[in-house]
Amino acid sequence: MAAPARLKSTLALVTGGGSGIGRAVCQRLAQEGASVAVVDLSIDSANDTLRRLARDAPGQDHVALAADVSRSESVRALMEQIQSRFLAPPRVAVNSAGITRDEFLLRLSEEAFDSVLNVNLKGTFLITQAVAQSIVTSGQDGGSIINMGSIVGKVGNLGQGNYAASKAGVEGLTKTAAKELAKFGICCNTILPGFIATPMTEKVPQKVLDKFAGMIPLGRLGRPEDVADVCAFLATEDSKYITGASIEVTGGLFL
Ligand code: NAD
User: Fold this and answer.
1) Pocket flag, ligand 1, residue 195 (CB < 6 Å)
2) Most buried residue, 48, 158, 203, 206, by CB count within 10 Å?
3) Ligand 1 close to Cβ of residue 171 (< 6 A)
4) Active-site pick, 30, 63, 70, 163
5) Would you say residue 1 lies in a domain?
6) In which band, very low, low, confident or very high, does the pLDDT at 193 lie, cut at 50, 70 and 90?
7) Which residues contact 55 (CB under 8 A, 6 or more apart)?
8) Domain count, the chain
9) 69 lies in a domain?
């Protein structure tokens, strides 16, 4: 049975939409009736997602756009392209763009620290601010901003000091945004995925994957669709009284 179209006539912007969780989010929101702006550093990946949306959700106005979320001029150009195409701000924004540069603290370079913070935290800030500004400027309140944190931001992980710091930062940023933007009817929430099988985790050795799977009470690694389902909930009116929340999607890992 088809899912109810809870996001009909809604424009959703998804960063990192060309891969993994971001791609699954684009597909899930489109299934809910949204028009999706698929944003990625790689236009080829974004176009690949766009082709899937055109196949699965034809008749809706989707677009693929290249942007580097860590650069303010790129984010500005992105928002101008969206405004001129849709003549309206996105009402849903999902910050899924993210990178890892794993290294133990004693060897972690300043460059690897900065690059992860720049994409994961500064990128989330720039998009959150730009989308909120576009909603406020439109004079029509209301929206949902969903940021991808990580369970690693809460519990840490060997070799991921930069990543953990960036994701803890995303949670603090999102809780502050929730407080500041509530008066404009904009809800801001963080999703904390656990271990989700995507291109990001492809490099992880099978031995480690098996170890994690064995630690997960629900007995399996997560799938991008597990996160996308929660995203769809946070994007719709079904979650209208939830803001500033951090929702763990971990199968119970680290409970
Ligand atoms: P992924 O590598 O499959 O996808 C990330 C996407 O972000 C890629 O398409 C990449 O091109 C894009 N991207 C990277 N830098 C960018 C930039 N500067 N500007 C725009 N786009 C950029 O990763 P994923 O597993 O789908 O992860 C998605 C999000 O979920 C990330 O924020 C990640 O930290 C978070 N997360 C993932 C897991 C997991 O286990 N996979 C767990 C917790 C949190």
Assistant:
1) yes
2) 48
3) no
4) 163
5) no
6) very high
7) none
8) 1
9) yes
